[in-house]
Amino acid sequence: MQQHSTLGEFIIENQKQFKYSSGELSRLINSIRLAAKVVNHEVNKAGLVDILGKAGETNIQGEDQQKLDVYANTIFMETLTNREIVCGIASEEEDDFVTISGNDDSNENKYVVLIDPLDGSSNVDVNVSVGTIFSIYRRVTKSGTPVQLEDFLQEGNKQVAAGYIVYGTSTMLVFTTGHGVNGFTLNPAIGTFYLSHPDMMFPENGTIYSINEGNYVHFPQGVKDYLKYCQMEEGDRPYTSRYIGSLVSDFHRNMIKGGIYIYPTSTKAPKGKLRLLYECNPMAFLAEQAGGKASDGYMRIMDIKPTELHQRVPFFCGSTNMIDVAERFMKNYPATADY
Ligand SMILES: O=P(O)(O)OC[C@H]1O[C@](O)(COP(=O)(O)O)[C@@H](O)[C@@H]1O
Ligand SMILES: [Mg+2]
Ligand SMILES: [Mg+2]
Questions:
Q1: Is residue 319 part of an annotated ligand binding site?
Q2: Considering every ligand atom, which ligand is closest to the CA of 128?
Q3: What is the ipTM of this complex?
Q4: Measuring CA to CA, which residue among 272, 268, 269, 267 is closest to residue 295?
Q5: 187 is in an annotated binding site
Q6: Sheet of strand 240-241, all strands in order from the earlier edge strand to the far edge
Q7: Which residue has the CA at smallest separation from atom 7 of ligand 1?
Q8: What is the pLDDT of residues 16-64, one digit of tens each?
Q9: Domains of the chain as residue ranges with CATH
């Protein structure tokens, strides 16, 4: 595909590659593109409008919702609902999944979307890059009937598409439909996404590690051992520590430069912090499509059978050789998280 073609052209050009290509998935990705532009507009002027700070509510995970969490959630929910292209949506900011029924109460649409409307919430007020993460599945229950929990609790290896938007120095939409990973940069002057990063690939090796070392004393021994390994004077080590605190932004940097992101279990978070369905599975799909790897330190993230909508898992994601080494340290000790 010729570089700098628009996202719209790319979608039309590649539609025939899309599994079950009936145009529905294209319309769905186009709607995510639209919602991304609306949210981007608000993020870019966050200090000027009343969108900073806490919303005064907590979500089902007991986290204080930021105003931008709520705003982004509303925009993505409305954009996807109004276009009647999905039969159900699950979101970090919604307690339960939302059934989208058509005018006649049934819904022939075949896709469900799982979304983290605003990723990196702790960075919103301090003007550090944040993102949105999405994951798309075909429903498994009969179309025309109300969507069920089982339509959302599918293994990551069943995803038909996944991606993220990073609202950073530039705004990019990066996604996969199972045929590689492509990145599109928004030209804010004309509101159009252009193909700027075709066929993105994780370097097999990297020298960057991303982890919140402030939790070091609470980490499992395998993680402590791996961090010591990263910091030793040997070969291409010590590695460089880089941690933005927005999964999307840390992942994006590591995919371009080579690196590993780890959010492990800890005595404070025995199952880890990140959510399997709308954070780890979509990033794992992208990582694998970009020649990288994603696990919980022991098993492939996308083979984990989900049991709850907001379940958390430990997350190791990045350059293949770095994940292999980290897993070798983890496998010296029994897994602590069970699901
Ligand atoms: O502040 P911590 O504990 O290091 O956690 C940071 C991690 O939590 C997250 O902010 C969780 O995502 P949300 O902001 O969507 O809740 C990740 O983006 C990030 O990598
Ligand atoms: Mg998140
Ligand atoms: Mg979030």
A1: no
A2: 1
A3: 0.99
A4: 272
A5: no
A6: 240-241, 208-210, 260-263, 315-318, 293-295
A7: 245
A8: 666 555 688 899 999 999 999 999 999 998 877 778 888 888 888 889 9
A9: 7-197 (3.30.540.10), 208-330 (3.40.190.80)
